[in-house]
Amino acid sequence: MIDRAFLTRLRAPICAAPMFLVSGPELVVGACKAGVMAAFPAPNSRTLDDFEAWIARISAEVCDAPWAVNLITHASNDRLKAELEIVARHRPPIVITALGGPRAAIEVVHGYGGLVIADVIDLGLARKAIAAGVDGLACVSAGAGGHTGFLSPFAFVSAVRERFDGLVIIGGGIADGYGVAGAVAAGADLAYVGTRFIAAEESAAADAYKAMLIGASLDDLIVSAAVTGTPASWLKPSLAAAGYDLASAGAPPARNYGDPAEAAKRWRDIWAAGQGVGAIRAVEPVATIVETLATEYGAAAARLALTIAR
């Protein structure tokens, strides 16, 4: 059984999802101080020295607030061993694994009492992660931005809960507090909210990226494997500006997560977004975004309680 006590310290059951070239220490610290969990992907730190400095800074500034490092555990990530050595030294409370098996992280993180959550997009991967001994699953579902899933978030969390008592995060098109409440009502402990935080002032996203998100809608999204070799949800205008044929979206390249600089080139001017994109109306401080989400979550919870009372 997982100790869920840290959830009671959150203003709302939200994790600001780790997003490539978007989530950094400023966003993580801001989100945690505003009262939600947050994570950043290790490849966002261009060097191992940067990675260690980011972890040390976040640890010092957020005190006992829950936060996470997202590690790419795919075999092509040649930094993984060194990243795990840094994790062992600084002991982030939560590690989220993605695009590979969680076993290497489990051995290290459980060694100091931390939690390991595995990103999964289907039941097959969920079963493997559970068998490996993870503490939680981040169920990336249809509607998620960036590398996306294809299952309904409600069907996914229901199927996972039949076989797993651990921590469950559900993500996929959740961009307001009402969606967060729906995820929790369906059986999740936390909701992944990603796209909504791209336009935060503390986000590392380019100003042009943030501007494109404002006023964008579902019609502006396309799911394609052409950029990274893995299906991902992209903003059509950014693909068109980069010369991609939206009808075919080109041929998928080989996946390689071992060179953050090379990966960054692919994502620098081609921008991801999930189906919650329509909730973005302005560039705002992360504290303002969290305030709105928490207020909406409270309203949704009150409405659900009123419905039950009837």
Automatic annotation (TrEMBL):
PANTHER family: BLR1330 PROTEIN, NITRONATE MONOOXYGENASE-RELATED
CDD domains tied to this protein: NPD_like
Alphabetical list of Gene3D superfamilies matching this protein: Aldolase class I (3.20.20.70)
The keyword Oxidoreductase is assigned to this record: yes
Region forming the signal peptide: none
Similarity section: Belongs to the nitronate monooxygenase family. NMO class I subfamily.
Keyword entries, A-Z: Flavoprotein, FMN, Monooxygenase, Oxidoreductase
Protein name: Nitronate monooxygenase
Molecular function, one GO term: nitronate monooxygenase activity
